[in-house]
Amino acid sequence: MPAASVTMQRDGGQRGAQLADPAGLAAAGYRRARGGDVAGGGDPGGRRTEVRSDLAGLAAAGYSAARGWLTLFFSLGTSFAAVPSAEFPGAAWSKAEPAEVGLAEARLLQARDYALTGGGSGRIVRHGRLVLAWGDQARLYDLKSSSKSIGVTALGLALLDGKVRLDDPAIRHHPDLGLPPEGNRETGWLPRITLRHLANQVAGFEKPGGYGKVLFEPGTKWLYSDAGPNWLAECLTLAYGRDLNEVLTERVFIPLGIRPADLRWRENAYRPQEINGVKRREFGSGFSANVDAMARLGYLYLREGRWGGRQILPTDFVRLARAPARELAGLAELDDKHGNASEHYSLLWWNNGDGTISELPRDAFWSWGLYDSLIVVIPSLDLVVARAGQGWKRTSDEHFDVLKPFLEPIALAAGEGSRRPTQVARSAVPPVPPSPVIRGMTWAPAASILRLAPGSDNWPATWGDDDALYTAYGDGNGFKPFVPAKLSLGLARITGVPPQVGGVNLTPSEAEFRGDGRSGRKASGMLMVDGVLYLLARNLDNAQLAWSRDRGRTWEWAPWKFTTSFGCPTFLNFGRNYAGARDRFVYVYSPDGDSAYVPADRMVLARAPQDRLTAPEAWEYFAGRDAAGGPRWSRAVADRAAVFTHPGNCYRGGVTYHPGLRRYLWCQVLPHSTHPQGPRFQGGFGIYDAPDPWGPWTTAYFTGNWDVGPGESGNLPTKWMSGDGRTVHLLFSGDDHFSVRAANLELHGNN
Q1: pTM surpassing 0.85?
Q2: Distance between CA atoms of 300 and 386, rounded to whole angstroms?
Q3: pLDDT of 326-361, one tens digit each?
Q4: What CA–CA distance (Å, rounded) separates 650 from 323?
Q5: Between the CA of residue 115 and those of 121, 140, 406, what are the distances in Å?
Q6: Whether 632 contacts 167, CB under 8 Å
Q7: Within 10 Å of residue 337's Cβ, how many Cβ atoms?
Q8: Alpha carbon of 202 to those of 111, 183, 219, 315, 624: distances in Å?
Q9: Is 396 helix (H, G, I), strand (E, B) or coil?
Q10: How far, in Å, CA of 20 to CA of 22, rounded?
């Protein structure tokens, strides 16, 4: 890591010292083989070995690579599991009955009836299909402040086109920003206002949409304003030198099938009609639209800026808009009318990132205007809602309370409409859209799970140059015959392919440590590159790197540590001895926190050249995407950006590359459980996939309540992926064992 992010430490004076496809699964499990490692041809060097195998075949267990498995993706996961490849509307939306898309009709009608207390129109879309509509679908409604969320779409275009950057000083694009009144110039604050400040309502402009005062230093408070978004509209108008209505019509509205009869943008109501000879538009208000146009805009955001085969908006822009802006966290509001808005607002969109609406997934976000016009997007439920009409009756001073009778029944409809709803936290829903490649995963029967090394957990793994897997266990005695003392960090070598797998304990004194739970160092990542075995250890304020040049016999520990974030880091693994790597870098993922025991809101990513992993100054951090969608990297840890977001649920896992599908697979265990001992014995997890190490991530499989405990970590070893790419094996720590379960990947039609 660079000097800014690490502290040079001797770590007890140890610097520089030698530190140390399956044939089938029997219904009853495996038999233990005697006399050594079945797959490896004996017990090398007389080391401790435990193996289990099934030579009889798996028909009795019902284990089939292609047919006959129970589709646990329905019965064990959420109703999200069956999402088909994304469907986009033409002139009209395709339709579905609520039950066809896993929604409880009674709940939807409950939400509709509440909406109709204010009259108006609405529609609900799931999986790209129209499920419910009410009111006049063609009528245009004055959307008031929902215009902010529509207008800010032009900011996404400008970022994509390289016209602006979020942290550009706004005055760079608009020399007369904030003027009049002249008194604003005298504050000295105008040059400090950025486009991000304007989009996040922290620029300091007072509420009215005309030429008002700037009330505070930018970035120091939150204040809901029309003037700030209107200045943003003018900055973008000047950046393009065109009427933004023309830009949005050509680039967004026409591709989405939104006609002039569906949406209109009125003339500016607060300022002169032109700026530098170009039509002046406003974002604070001004759009009128029907609910079909509203739903299409919401669906564009649901699909992370993509429409059909075209990327209209940058994915990272949409992801920023749908989650609480980190720079707003903890900011005081100048007034208290908006319910702690700085914790659930970003880029002129509202969101539920802080869980204020308890029955609504935290990834939900929405536009919101006077009279309660709403464009609601819930990625984890693959759902869009549009509503416009008259305002609802307020019975509480809490800002979001008026929305709950409308939004909560819709979210509950998704749970009650699934085949087997699970009693888990509302946050336990997929945080990202469905995979365009992997339709789902079907798991081998629970009776077929291979379980070795009882009492031990963790199990990060890498594929070594000698064709073995190298792994590490925690809080146990490893494989049979057990090591004498219970270890917080022990090492093992794994040979074979399931179901014929054997484990051998390695006993380098320099890499064996004691201590239960968080009191002892534990491995969180393993990797072999060019014959060098690397290990990342957590519980060390925050984490530390070690390496072995002799396949785990002796070890050297880095004299520096990760001291900012990266409290539970794990490596991205490719093939044997790092074969098939995409480039000459090594990638490391972690929850964005200092502890492996506190779930984070997001995941972060770092990398270093393969031949310089041990040099702290060689590391750099993922800092978001550029306007073209490529990754940005920074040497400063303070610049790190989210590579994955799931508020309160970013925990432990493992990342591997699937060469057959050319997808990166990330197993993430959910930290929440109904069992007193946590996800070791009950819980869920997600498997997410992406075309690049930095995303965009989508959901290949998700469950809040697997049929067995998923353990606290898991990964999909590349060595155990079948040649056709359809069969994978999850290595996980469920029931405090070295546990392995096969799965069949269900792919979309073109894969």
Answers
A1: no
A2: 13
A3: 888 888 888 777 777 888 999 999 999 888 898 888
A4: 14
A5: 8, 17, 7
A6: no
A7: 12
A8: 33, 19, 5, 23, 21
A9: coil
A10: 35
Instruction: Quote the Cα angle for 649-654-656, to 5°.
Output: 130
Token output for 360: 């609504």
Which of the residue ranges 198-202, 530-534, 547-551, 747-751 would you say has the lowest mean pLDDT?
747-751
Instruction: Find the distance separating the first CA and the last CA of the chain, reported in whole Å.
Output: 39
Q: Of the candidates 673, 656, 555, which has an alpha carbon nearest to the alpha carbon of residue 614?
A: 555
- For residues 570, 574, 577, 581, the Cα torsion angle rounded to the nearest 10 degrees is -110
Domains, the chain: 3-64+436-747 (2.115.10), 94-416 (3.40.710.10)
The more confidently predicted of residues 247 and 361 is 247
Sequence letter at residue 705: N
Highest mean pLDDT pick, 6-10, 110-114, 484-488: 110-114
Average pLDDT, whole number, for the chain? 85
In the sheet with 349-351, reading across from the earlier edge strand, the strands are 94-95, 129-134, 121-126, 383-388, 373-378, 365-369, 349-351, 345-346
Alpha helices in 344-459 (DSSP H): 404-416
Using alpha carbons, select from 493, 451, 462, 458 the residue that is nearest to residue 473: 458
The rounded distance, in Å, linking the Cα atoms of 625 and 1 is 21
361 in Cβ contact with 411 (< 8 Å): yes
β partners of residue 450: 740
Give residue 509's pLDDT: 62
For residues 255 and 244, what is the distance between their CA atoms, to the nearest angstrom? 16
Structure confidence at residue 80 as a pLDDT band (50, 70, 90)? very low
Q: Are 3 and 616 in contact (CB under 8 A)?
A: yes
The reported pLDDT for the residue numbered 720 is: 98
| Residue 642 to residues 535, 663, 667, 695, Cα–Cα distance (Å) | 24, 19, 17, 10
| pLDDT tens digits, one per residue of 511-531 | 667 665 566 799 999 999 999
Owner of token pair 């490391």:
588
User: DSSP secondary-structure letter at 79?
Assistant: G
Mean pLDDT across 569-591:
98
Cβ contacts of residue 257 below 8 Å, gap of 6+? 89, 90, 91, 296
* The residue to which tokens 């519980």 are assigned: 539
The predicted pLDDT at position 2 comes to 37
Contact yes or no for 82/74 (Cβ under 8 A)? yes
